[in-house]
Amino acid sequence: MRAVRVGIIGGGSIAKAHVIGLRSLPSYFGAEGLRVEIPVIADIRRTAAENSAQRYEIDRWVTDWRAVIEDDDIDAVTIATPNHTHAEIAIAALEARKHVLCEKPLADNAGAGESMVDAAQSAGVVDSVHLNYRKIPAIQYAKRLIEAGELGSVLRYRGAFLQDWAANPLVPRSWKFEAGRAGAGPVLAVGCHVVDLARFLVGEISEVSAITKTSIRERPTPRGLSTYEVETDVSEMAPVDTDDMAAMILNFDNGAIGTIETSRVTLGRKNHCFIEINGTQGSIVFDYERMNEIHVATSQTAGLGMARVVIGPEHDGGLVWSLGGLGVGFAETVILHMRSFVKSITTGDVEVATFLDGLRAQEVVQAALASAASGVRELVPRHPIATVPIP
Amino acid sequence: MRAVRVGIIGGGSIAKAHVIGLRSLPSYFGAEGLRVEIPVIADIRRTAAENSAQRYEIDRWVTDWRAVIEDDDIDAVTIATPNHTHAEIAIAALEARKHVLCEKPLADNAGAGESMVDAAQSAGVVDSVHLNYRKIPAIQYAKRLIEAGELGSVLRYRGAFLQDWAANPLVPRSWKFEAGRAGAGPVLAVGCHVVDLARFLVGEISEVSAITKTSIRERPTPRGLSTYEVETDVSEMAPVDTDDMAAMILNFDNGAIGTIETSRVTLGRKNHCFIEINGTQGSIVFDYERMNEIHVATSQTAGLGMARVVIGPEHDGGLVWSLGGLGVGFAETVILHMRSFVKSITTGDVEVATFLDGLRAQEVVQAALASAASGVRELVPRHPIATVPIP
Amino acid sequence: MRAVRVGIIGGGSIAKAHVIGLRSLPSYFGAEGLRVEIPVIADIRRTAAENSAQRYEIDRWVTDWRAVIEDDDIDAVTIATPNHTHAEIAIAALEARKHVLCEKPLADNAGAGESMVDAAQSAGVVDSVHLNYRKIPAIQYAKRLIEAGELGSVLRYRGAFLQDWAANPLVPRSWKFEAGRAGAGPVLAVGCHVVDLARFLVGEISEVSAITKTSIRERPTPRGLSTYEVETDVSEMAPVDTDDMAAMILNFDNGAIGTIETSRVTLGRKNHCFIEINGTQGSIVFDYERMNEIHVATSQTAGLGMARVVIGPEHDGGLVWSLGGLGVGFAETVILHMRSFVKSITTGDVEVATFLDGLRAQEVVQAALASAASGVRELVPRHPIATVPIP
Amino acid sequence: MRAVRVGIIGGGSIAKAHVIGLRSLPSYFGAEGLRVEIPVIADIRRTAAENSAQRYEIDRWVTDWRAVIEDDDIDAVTIATPNHTHAEIAIAALEARKHVLCEKPLADNAGAGESMVDAAQSAGVVDSVHLNYRKIPAIQYAKRLIEAGELGSVLRYRGAFLQDWAANPLVPRSWKFEAGRAGAGPVLAVGCHVVDLARFLVGEISEVSAITKTSIRERPTPRGLSTYEVETDVSEMAPVDTDDMAAMILNFDNGAIGTIETSRVTLGRKNHCFIEINGTQGSIVFDYERMNEIHVATSQTAGLGMARVVIGPEHDGGLVWSLGGLGVGFAETVILHMRSFVKSITTGDVEVATFLDGLRAQEVVQAALASAASGVRELVPRHPIATVPIP
Q: What's the burial of C217, exposed, middle or buried (CB within 10 Å: 0-12/13-18/19+)?
């Protein structure tokens, strides 16, 4: 099979994950015959482009992403740029009939996301948003349990995504703290993951009430540092206009209720993406920081409470390792997402989060932001679309 | 010192805890000289009254609680009856100048609670509501950490109280499922604990948005069974008009935000009273099911995440055991509350949750119920009172 | 029923537990009609005797334990004195036909233990050693699981009892650090518990290899401080001649193998009494610091790993609380032991650890100490006795 | 820099890990310029060789490993064949002056291991045994803590490696259950990891007492299935002559004591590689199944018990991800080991477990097997070698 030729747009820190994800396919899933090449990487910053190309052994680099999209030899692009640029790049790529993998969140606002979905619907190529947490083997296992009715009817969802990398007020005011470029703070940046998991595992969210908070209202202007490093020069401070904490309560179409909390300033929580789902017959509890286990109550465990299931080949079909308990990390969540993206390109019908999934998450966040402002429970708007069921 | 003579009103399952709590004072805290006698127990059900008296070695039993209140030889009463009867009994007891310990929640509705608080304010005796979770040694330790500024400014509170004893639809429709007698479901029954812990540890709650749900809408009529046992005779079903799940988002006076969730139908959760508090300098995480430990991040643990503190004499002043890790259970939470109640009677100024604390919790629940109905963020009403600070 | 009249011998810190255990029986188990009186307490130290009597509301105190034993009005005694005095007191009490509850370990050496067992065998009264960890509800549940064959044939036992109260070299050299009075260090003091749990749950131990270590070889001479408090005056140091750490490997009669570790100097472990048992069909894992849960794998959980069982009324027969997850602590382990002791006196045939159980534990420890010295795997000697099966 | 050209010998399940490990270096550590090519794979089974080559996109395959070793274009080999073949292949490779990475355990017996070490000493190339658990970021962090004195003097080590993949008696009798090919059971197969971690973190082991057990004495003859799948055809059974459980107690050169347990039949344990180290100033606790955290007590946490450290860039120098809590899995342990192996080849002096480390682990296991047979505490023999300190 001819290799799928992918251009990477954006040479920042997430580009590394994209490279690992794409390049690992033969080593991990050799029997499936997936082949990828990465002929080019683009970054508007010349140094970043050049360095990334050298670092990742990519033959060619460019500073204009349009050069990638216009390249007839390229089949697909991944977009790893700041949120506010996603729409323009993705729509251009779709119009050039490139398959597109866009980093999450889909865009900085739902309106931009709608344009992306509309463009994707008419392009007839594979469009995917990098909501890779669906691909965590424990989450896939939870999905199968729920679909098999092991939890009965779902009554309640709890999703939390708590981090502390921004708890230090000296973490600089990168674009992630600017509404103009990020759209919002963690309510969107990581909230999109827990909203997506809610949709993936429970169903569509109909109504939201929310509150948001910005606990650190100014930060040092960044001076070329990475997003996560503290800035010692505090002579120039810049205002933060994004949330750093949020809380929501939810109603689902199917009658379940739920909560979602997001934060990047909760000390002691590193990547605490926590999911609890309770149904009439059972429950699951998952914490990303211990992603190789999931706690489940089903009719099988009745009288025994929740069982700690350590993930192994019986849960991922032996895709990763053939012995239980060896464990995966963030890399495999990306690798498994990229596998589905590339399989979608080559075979056409594999489950992977789409632009529409990205938009649906964004619509919930948008309703949450509206509720935080209005104090009223808000209906989640849904951009009309030809029938595209939740996978 | 003359023993404090206490009458117990209500011979149901919680009476056992009251007896243990009152009788254990010399054994546990002998050096403090606290002495209690329980001369009488009342229950409207003759058999319950008689059995309780025999079981607990109480000399006398009555079926009319007024006989206890009118007894000049009685110094204090504890009220362990269904919620809708608290106000009448407590107010009568206060008017008879008895010290009163009332089971939580304070009443079935905030209006009744207001009358109780007003009566208590004018009675000049000790009034306490049995919000005993404050007395868990790990919670007392958390309180001291927060007061010492170890968490900095509190930014976020999360309280959850999840049980599953009512997940089985065959658990009978006892008074706990009747709005007329219980006031509400777990949003009040256990929600009062997590609201109280919020107030105790963080401060007053100003605004609430909430949703509630009743997932099991009818249950078998009870036939003399205990509250927690399933009923096999399902020929007669009765409607449930209380919530069995709820979720709230909160604003605090001091700017912190929060969430509270309550349920008695979440399979796999037994008495999962979970507290997380994050501040600008640290965090605490507590789970009642592991009540002898608490997880804390402070400036001391910076760079190391959260430390698991196993509770020992350094945390409770050696009140219970002189060696760390021996552990306490529900009994000690009651014993420690009763210690404070009796000390308040004999010495006058000990910290113990008062009727006002009970009312403040009820007001938050009332606002939550209002918000669940209105879809709007509701202000928490506060019954006016002479200055009574949160301890 | 006439109350059982118990004299307490020894007014140190463990006396508090004895008082709580004996006095709580009506409050906890009222329906069973158990009644106890504590007319007298003895301590060789006049102040301790007097203070204890006052503190615990005991009418009479004496400084000579023989006065308790010779008192015709006393039915039973509990012995809460240093290890090397157990034999003399217990044998005298047995000869006076008093029922005896002796603190663990049974004695300071196996020879003394043998005399106690022989005396008990001929006395025809109830003899019990305070190996109360058997009475932890989670352990009782484990026992039933094993007896029901839920684990299949037991293959492996792991017991550890790790504490850190003596990790500070300034903890004074109390009698617990003197071989002459304690017999040995934690290998005996807490080792007796994990050996007893091995016997209770798995069966008799036939062979032991062991190593021991004394990491802190001298400590300050105690100056009236409690055992667990540090001593600031280090002008006079005394040698420590007991172990502070030990490790054993075990063979059981039934073919299972095992390990036991004990320590009082492992920082971060408070009362980490840890049990793991693996059989051909399942496993259990228990940690005292989280005593209200136990992790079990059985054929029921096959494919799901280990379930976390939160202890509730279904595990203790509703003896303590009628709602799951409320939790017990050290007090209830003593109360439940005292319940069995008193029931044995009044009804004659209740399961409770006997002097023989205490001796069997001691024999294993003795073999371990011998192996530590010899470097050879040692047979565990067994004092011959008329048929007394492990319960 | 010219790429290091590596031939892989052995096309079984662990070959996948070698391929991932070698191929991922530019994607993960691009800035370091490590480049690897895998021109050839060998397997004695023609189908395995051919399939592996196709699966992993390796240009060439051979059935005779000597063809790899004799290939002048090959710089290094990795050996992923059954234990009893390691010595012959490794020694031939060393004599051909190829750098060698040999799977663990180093060999099936210590004698073979000695020959390998001797050959490595004289070859002057890089020799490494795949004891990759050293490379777990949490373990590297523990190493630094210990070297910095944060634990004080180490007093005690506990290592356990418990699995359950062989608990089902229908798991076939593959070579792993044959002493002739495997050398021993889990005491060697996974015991080498926990012995190696003991040496890496604490120091050399001087004496061992041990017991071993074979609980399942026959298994179905394998019929082409993978090692871990059950065999339904039980018409032909074959004897098992390796241990499936073992327990050891240890003395270290530096006075510390320890225990090690290994098993592949403990139900509910998947890859439970558990490490506890206690010193005079602190402790660490690690469980592979939660490899992205480690629990530490140091003087910093004094009074707070053990802190749960979630691994992040501050612990691995940002080698893997730039945000804490994202997590690694088994793949990264191999990738990090391969990084060190390749860096050792290109730069000469990087820490990586050597053949001598492999031999030292084997010597401890050999002493354990001897003690299990003799019942006597055995000195660990040490093959004499020119000064090669533990890294």
A: exposed
Query: pLDDT, tens digit, for every residue of C258-267?
Result: 999 999 999 9
In whole angstroms, give the CA distance from residue B117 to residue D30.
69
Which of C273, C241, C215, B308 lies closest to D154, judged by CA? Answer: C215
Give C353→chain D minimum CA distance, Å.
29
Contacts of B376 in chain A (CB under 8 A): 375-377
Alpha helices (H) in chain A, listed in sequence order: 13-23, 25-29, 46-55, 65-69, 86-95, 110-123, 137-147, 179-182, 186-189, 191-201, 313-316, 330-347, 355-374
* Cis, peptide link before residue C105, omega less than 30° from 0: yes
Q: How many Cβ atoms from other residues are within 10 Å of residue B200's Cβ?
A: 21
Answer yes or no: is pLDDT of D367 > 80. Answer: yes
Contact call for residues D105 and D361 (beta carbons, < 8 A): yes
CA distance linking residue D368 with residue D357, whole number of Å: 17
E-state strands within B264-321 = 272-279, 283-287, 293-297, 306-310
CB contact under 8 A, A297 and B268: yes
The answer to whether the Cβ–Cβ distance between D296 and B304 falls below 8 Å is: yes
**Residue C306's beta-bridge partner residues?**
A308
Predicted confidence at residue C390, as pLDDT, reads 46
Residue D214 · residue D240 · CB < 8 Å: yes
The residue among B289, B304, B315, B339 with the most chain C CBs within 10 A of its CB, best to mutate, is B289
Question: Neighbouring chains of A at 3+ CB pairs within 8 Å?
Answer: B, C, D
Q: How far apart are CA D176 and CA D290, in angstroms?
A: 26
Give the whole-angstrom CA distance, residue C363 versus residue C192: 10
CA atoms within 13 A on the CB side of C9: 30
Annotate D111-169 with DSSP letters as a single string: HHHHHHHHHHHHH-S-EEE--GGGGSHHHHHHHHHHHTTTT-SEEEEEEEEE--TT-ST
The model's pLDDT over B6-40, given as tens digits with 9 standing for 90+, comes to 999 999 989 999 999 999 999 999 989 999 999 99
Burial of D190 (0-12, 13-18, 19+ CB in 10 A): buried
Residues in chain C: 391
Distance separating alpha carbons of residues D105 and A319, to the nearest angstrom: 26
* Residue D158 near chain C (CB below 8 Å): yes
The rounded distance, in Å, linking the Cα atoms of D275 and D198 is 9
Q: Do D307 and B306 touch (CB under 8 A)?
A: yes
Picking from C94, C338, C353, C367, the residue whose alpha carbon sits closest to that of residue C249 is C367
Which residue's structure tokens are 């608490």?
B294
Is the full-model pTM beyond 0.90?
yes
Q: Which residues pair with C251 in a beta bridge?
A: C207, C257
* B155 touches A at CB < 8 Å: yes
Does residue A374 sit in helix, strand or coil?
helix
- Tell me the backbone φ, ψ of residue A281, rounded to 5 degrees: -120, -10
Query: Measured between CB atoms, which of B16, B272, B329 is closest to C329?
Result: B329
Residue A225 pLDDT grade (very low, low, confident, very high; cuts 50, 70, 90):
low
D207 vs D192: CA distance, rounded Å: 16
Work out the angle at residue C365's Cα, subtended by the Cα atoms of residues C95 and C371, and round it to the nearest 5 degrees.
135
Q: What is the 3-state secondary structure (H, E, C) of A328-343?
A: CCHHHHHHHHHHHHHH
* B257 contacts A211? CB cut-off 8 A: yes
pLDDT over 70, % of chain B: 98
In chain D, the largest separation of any two C-alpha atoms, in whole Å, equals 62
Contact C283 D267 (CB under 8 A): yes
Amino acid at A387: T
Is the CB of residue D337 less than 8 Å from the CB of residue D130?
Answer: yes
For C210, which DSSP code?
E
Put residue A348 in one of left, alpha, beta given phi > 0 → left and psi -120 to 50 → alpha. Answer: left
